[in-house]
Write a structure and sequence with these properties.
The protein is α/β, with parallel strands linked by helices. It has 8 helices and 12 strands.
């Protein structure tokens, strides 16, 4: 039985994770951490039924009390780096869905994970369809010299661009040095109107608007043709199969993994 601690348990994603863990035959929810609702039963908030697990606000205390095998983190970009170090230093295997980590921070967590021999998985997106979108974009990148990314999220998402967009650009950049071949010299009359220039000159455009959950388009262009690869998340439940896959992976395997595509 895999003992699981959910961090950010009162958030929209965290609540879905709690419900999903409770449905698994090989997992046991042992704790819930959030900055809100200290002392309340997480079950009463998530499934309208008390389950005997009180919400705690101090992460290190929660780890000592519950002794989890795996921690699933869906918190905030400002908290995730420190949280991840706490997990690893306490020999708890983290599954991290919170985005906003820099390349340097990911590299540092990989180093710490290796030094401590604590299996770690960080995924910008846990939706199987979104992961396939990224894999398809990487394959298409071999055949197009021009590409841009548009990502669209709800207006409560704090980081931009999204982790999914960044990961997509990284994968595409493995195939080509630039995706702006033949572009003319540009002048932005309004700063930022061309989006942010990322890896291999891929422009990323971030939209924040109520009504969206998470959507992304990867646009490829060539003479006389445009190809669009798009994925839309309609409900947060779509992330759960990937999250549960990640929990089983870190529990049963060693090493550091960045991106769900590496375990599919």
């Amino acid at each position: 039985m895999i003992k699981v601690l959910v961090v950010g348990a009162c958030g929209k994603m965290g609540a879905e994770v709690v419900k999903s863990v409770l449905k698994q035959d090989n997992m046991q929810l042992v704790g819930a951490v959030d900055i809100l609702n200290e002392g309340l039963d997480i079950g009463s908030l998530v499934i309208n039924k008390e389950i005997g697990i009180k919400i705690q606000t101090n992460l290190e205390t929660a780890i000592k009390l519950t002794q989890p095998d795996v921690a699933i983190d869906f918190t905030q970009p400002s908290a995730i780096f420190n949280n991840a170090k706490i997990f690893i230093n306490n020999r708890v295997k983290p599954v991290i869905g919170t985005t906003g980590l820099s390349d340097d921070q990911v590299a540092e967590l990989k180093k710490l994970s290796t030094e401590k021999s604590v299996s770690t998985l960080i995924a910008p997106n846990f939706t199987i369809g979104a992961v396939l979108m990224m894999m398809f974009a990487k394959k298409a990148a071999k055949y197009f010299d021009n590409a841009e990314i548009i990502e669209l999220h709800h207006n409560q998402k704090k980081d931009a661009p999204s982790g999914t967009a960044v990961k997509t650009a990284q994968l595409m950049a493995q195939e080509k040095e630039t995706f702006a071949k033949g572009n003319c010299a540009e002048t932005e009359l309004i700063e930022g109107s061309r989006g942010g220039k990322s890896y291999s000159n891929i422009h990323i455009h971030s939209v924040r608007m109520p009504g969206y959950i998470a959507s992304q388009e990867v646009l490829f262009g060539a003479a006389g043709q445009i190809m669009t690869i798009r994925h839309d998340s309609m409900d947060r439940e779509c992330y759960m199969s990937g999250v549960m896959l990640a929990v089983n992976h870190v529990f049963n395997n060693d090493g550091f993994v960045y991106g769900l595509d590496n375990i599919l």
